[in-house]
Amino acid sequence: MTVRPIRIIGDPVLRTACTPVTRFDAALQQLVDDLMDTLTGEPGRAGVAAPQIGVDAQVFVYDADGHRGHLINPTIELSGEVQDDDEGCLSIPGLYFPTRRALHATVHGVDRHGDPLTISGSGFLARALQHETDHLAGRLYVDTLRGDVRRKALREIRAGRFDSPRRRG
Length: 169
Fold this sequence. Notes:
Elements: H1 26-40, E1 47-49, E2 59-64, E3 67-78, E4 82-89, E5 92-102, E6 104-110, E7 116-122, H2 123-136, H3 147-158, H4 165-168
Antiparallel strand pairs: 1-2, 2-3, 3-6, 4-5, 6-7
């Protein structure tokens, strides 16, 4: 079991669009396993994307609403219906803000063997799929915030008020 450390906001890897996966080899198998171990290594985690462990690859794992799996090279389709709920991120630990997301999401991609895979979900699963897909494009959930909520989130981040491992150590 390999639980990898989570990269924290400020790390450039979190703001860089990931490279599509083209090789379905042992290294990819290990990456998917490491991501899943990192996801399940602590309770309450809904997803982990490759850049969050410092890897430039379009891969994420998820565990939300009773659905657990992985997806490689995803594309996403969103419904017009929206949901508003608090959202957080392992890369900005301890901060949660109301975040507008599509109520339904369908993500197409491939699995660790290169076989086509489609995942559809509503509610929390849809939120997790959107959140992790955003990571692969170099976006964080705070980028979707608007108005006073965005200003408050950015102030909290600049002030270092999130639960940073650097501050705990």
